[in-house]
Sequence to fold (133 residues):
Amino acid sequence: MVRIAQDRIADLFGLAEREATAGPGPLPDRYVRLARRIGTRYNVRLLTEYREFYCRGCSAYWAEGRTVRTRLRRGRRVRTCLRCGRERRLPVRERRRGSTPPEIPPVATAQEDGALVGEAPGDSDEDDGSEEA
Ligand SMILES: [Zn+2]
Fold:
């Protein structure tokens, strides 16, 4: 039974995706709602990859730019549902190995003791130009 439920959920998300790319309409949201209901009914967790696709607040299928807005804020990916305004914050990193996550400047608390943190390695003023007098 669990297997069937999982298959059905996968089918529904597939359908939702197809409908969402086809154009706006109520169907994707309906598919998401059904999938979630099957999940609760048979006590099957939705895969984490599916959780990227819908709003946990109102079950809207998330189509970028239409029902969800994604912004980078303080090193996090913040996805705001445009239906109900619910936010979902995710760490940025995950996959994309080449790119480095945005640098979050450390909040300087140690200004008094004069110890500089995070100075650039290899300062360029090591050569004074006065080696032969
Ligand atoms: Zn929502």
Observations:
- The radius of gyration is 24 Å.
- The pocket of zinc ion is lined by residues 55, 57-58, 60, 81, 83-84, 86 (CB under 6 Å).
